[in-house]
Amino acid sequence: MKKEIDVETASSIPISLYIHIPWCVKKCPYCDFNSHEASMSFDEQGYINALINDLEVELPHISDRLLTSIFIGGGTPSLFSPESLDMLLSSIREYLNLYSNIEITLEVNPGTVEAKKFFEYKEVGINRLSIGIQSFDDKSLKLLGRIHDADEAKEAILICKEAGFGNFNLDIMYGLPNQTVDNALLDLTQAVEQSPTHISWYQLTIEPNTAFSSNPPQIPNDDITWDMQKEGQEFLKHSDFHRYEISAYTKKKFASIHNTNYWEFGDYIGIGAGAHSKVTNASEGKIERYSRHKIPKRYIELAGSKAVITEKRLLNASEIPLEFMMNALRLTDGVPSKLFFERTGLSMDTIAKELKYAEKGGLLESHQNKIIPSSQGQRYLNDLLEIFMR
Length: 390
What we know:
With about 400 residues, this protein is an alpha/beta fold. It folds into two domains: about 250 residues, TIM Barrel; about 70 residues, Arc Repressor Mutant, subunit A, CATH 1.10.10. Helices cover about 35% and strands about 20% of the residues. A hairpin with a 4-residue loop joins strand 12 and strand 13. Helix 1 runs parallel beside helix 2, helix 1 crosses helix 11 and helix 7 runs parallel beside helix 9.
């Protein structure tokens, strides 16, 4: 049973829970996530039991902390039944203390069969959906290996709204094979017309160990994708979507709590095959990262024991500043300077030289109480981060 706590006694560092569901109907050629095609039946109940057992192992880390958000990702989590997710969420509520306004997000795909579950997902306590649209162009969807078409995407969004989800995200890609700037803007226009509260608009990248890496498609050159980005950002701005992170755009008060916690260097527990965790021990000044076994069958066998952890390490003090900046500098409005000490335990003097150098180079804005990337720093983020590698 959980230990009752309140906001006053909770850690000042927020903590989130990520739950990984590793199966999908079809592996997309651009996807480098830990996902596996569900060509044969998978052990849904066994996996839910494993997740609950896995959560019990983590209780010493989080039983005395308030959970700010839950994100169920994949794979395709909406392959699981509402009954299974209800069982999982009930266990989480039994074991952990949750903020009264906790954000609980489920990643879903637009297939009609899955969309019919949206009403039940709402009933079990999920209050935010992230819908993997990627494009409203049927040719692009086919090239991306998606199993839905544009009409199914729009139908899924309609069902999402009918089910009562007042908060939902649409995933949209640009820089797609054979895509023009006009095509990219048409995708964005159709996304905005669906009245989402949040849009994740990001460039297609060819990742190692994907089908696209072994057989690359012809994608637009850098000049065309830069035009897409500039014009798309301007369009979203005029549509009242605030760009608060490199690829995240939100209506007022609908920024993702879960993802913001990552970017502000908060803590998170990841359960499920291949999930990653980051936990801060403030009293000892330690930050620990660890990950779980990737293979679903083996994960089910090991969940509930310490053997499910395949890699664990403490961050060295020398690498913490870069780790912090790799997240915080993705936020277009930056972060309060005091957050660096609160989340790392390190003095601002640790990075004073680097901040001054970046500011002099025009990659950071000059601000007394905040660390804010300039528009140039946002565009050339890798160059900005290299400063903190020295």
